[in-house]
Amino acid sequence: MKLLYSGKTKDVYELEDGNYLLKFKDDVTGENGVFDPGANTVGLTIEGAGAAGLRLTKFFFEKLKEKNIPTHYMDANLEEATMTVVPATVFGEGLEVICRYRAVGSFLKRYGKYVKEGQALDAFVEVTLKDDERQDPPISEDALDMVGILTKEEYHTLKELTQQIAQVVKDELAKKDVELYDIKLEFGRDANNNILLIDEISGGNMRAYKDGKYIEPLELEKIIVS
Amino acid sequence: MKLLYSGKTKDVYELEDGNYLLKFKDDVTGENGVFDPGANTVGLTIEGAGAAGLRLTKFFFEKLKEKNIPTHYMDANLEEATMTVVPATVFGEGLEVICRYRAVGSFLKRYGKYVKEGQALDAFVEVTLKDDERQDPPISEDALDMVGILTKEEYHTLKELTQQIAQVVKDELAKKDVELYDIKLEFGRDANNNILLIDEISGGNMRAYKDGKYIEPLELEKIIVS
Lengths: 226, 226
Hints:
Chains A, B: GO terms for molecular function: ATP binding; phosphoribosylaminoimidazolesuccinocarboxamide synthase activity. Chains A, B: Residues 3-214 form the SAICAR synthetase/ADE2 N-terminal domain. Chains A, B: This is Phosphoribosylaminoimidazole-succinocarboxamide synthase. Chains A, B: One of its GO terms (biological process) is 'de novo' IMP biosynthetic process. 2 copies of one chain form a homodimer. In chain A, a hairpin with a 2-residue loop joins strand 4 and strand 5. The first copy, chain A, has 5 helices and 16 strands. In chain A, strands 9, 10, 11, 12, 13, 14, 15 and 16 form an 8-stranded antiparallel β-sheet that branches. In chain A, strands 1-2-3-8-7 form a 5-stranded antiparallel β-sheet, with helices on one face. In chain A, strands 5-4-6 form a 3-stranded antiparallel β-sheet, with no helix packed on it. Helices cover 28% and strands 35% of the residues of chain A. By secondary structure, chain A is an alpha+beta fold. Chain A folds into 2 domains: 2-85, Phosphorylase Kinase, domain 1 (2-Layer Sandwich); 89-216, D-amino Acid Aminotransferase, Chain A, domain 1 (2-Layer Sandwich). The longest helix of chain A has 24 residues, at 152-175. At the A-B interface, helix 2, strand 11, strand 12 and helix 3 of A face helix 2, strand 11, strand 12 and helix 3 of B.
C-alpha cells in the first residue's frame, strides 16, 4: 500500500488492485484552535473526528448512490477510519465547488455591500481554486475555460451535480431540524473521464445550524447518523 | 449647475437641461506616487492629465459612435476639460467590467498558479464590484443575478458590448504599434433602460504596451491622438 498524498485531514494510499484508500485523520481545519470549515490550516486535533467524519461521509455517499449520483465511493471501514474509492484525478490542481443557501463566510465578506448576513440564497454555486498561497480565489466559468481547467460543458455538469448533491444533504439535515447554510464539494474525473464527487461529505465541509445556532462537526454527526 | 458627485478623477454636475457635465481632474489613481490604473486611491496629480484623458476619451467615444455602439457621450470642451453626457444610473453601486488580452494585474494575482505573466487571453471578460472597503471583489454572472445587480440577459449584453468596445480600442492602438493588455469599462442604464458605456476611455482605464514597455497614460494620449 503506497502513500500517494498526505492532506490536511486525510491521507490517500494506492491499493494493490489500483483503487485508492482514504485514511481519515483526527485533524480538522481551523484557526487558533477554533474549527472553521473555510480555513486552510489545521487548527486542532479531536480524538474520533476522523471516524465521525467517515461515518457521516458513508451515510451521505450511500444516499447519493441510491439516487444514482456518481461518486468515487466503494465502501468504508469505520473501525479503521478508512474508505475505499475509485481512482480519480482532480481538475487542475484542485477546485472547491460551493453551494450556498445563506449568505455567510467568504460570500458575505466579498458581497457584504449587497447582502445581509444570513440572507437566503437560491442554491448559489461558485468555484474556488485550491491555492493556499493565493487564499483560494473564486474563479468564474469563463476563467475556468480560459485557463484550461474546465470546459463550459464540464462546468455545467459540475454546477448541476453540486445543486443535486447539496439538495440531498439539505433534505437529510432538515429531517433532524438542521438547516444547511452552505457546503463545499470536490469533484474529479474517473478513468473514463466521467465527472464524479470525490473526497468526503462531513461536518467539516458544511455550515449547519439548528435553532439559529451553529452545529459543530462532531455534534452534527451525532444528530444525523445516530 | 449642481455638483452631483465628486469622484477620484472626475466631478459630475447636473446641467439645467437635465444632462450631466463631467469635469476631468488632474488627479490620477495610483499608490505612492506611481500610476496604477487598478488602484483605488489617488496617487498623484499631473498638470494636464484631465485634459489629456478627455482628449483620448473624446477620440474613442467618437469612434464608438461611428460604429453605433451606445455610449453616454454628447460632446466635449477640451479647453474646460469637460464632457456633456446623457444621464445614466450605474448598476448596483457601480461595477467595473474588464476585458483582458494578457494575464497581468489582479488576474495574474488570482490565477498565477495556472497562467504565466503576460500570457495571451482571448478577450476575457470579468466584472468587479466598486467597493474600496472590500478591495473591488470579482463577481460572477450568477452572483450578479442572485444579489439583484444584473439579470442574466443584461450580463450577456454587457459582456458583448465590452468585447466590441475593447476591440475598437485595441485596433486603434494597434495602428500606432501599441498593444492593449487590458481595459476596464463602466456601464449604466439611460432613462429608457438601455445599457450604455459611461465614464471615460483614457490611459487611466487601460494597460498599453509598446515594444514590451508599459506606456504611461499621458504618453499614450500623445501617441494615439496626435
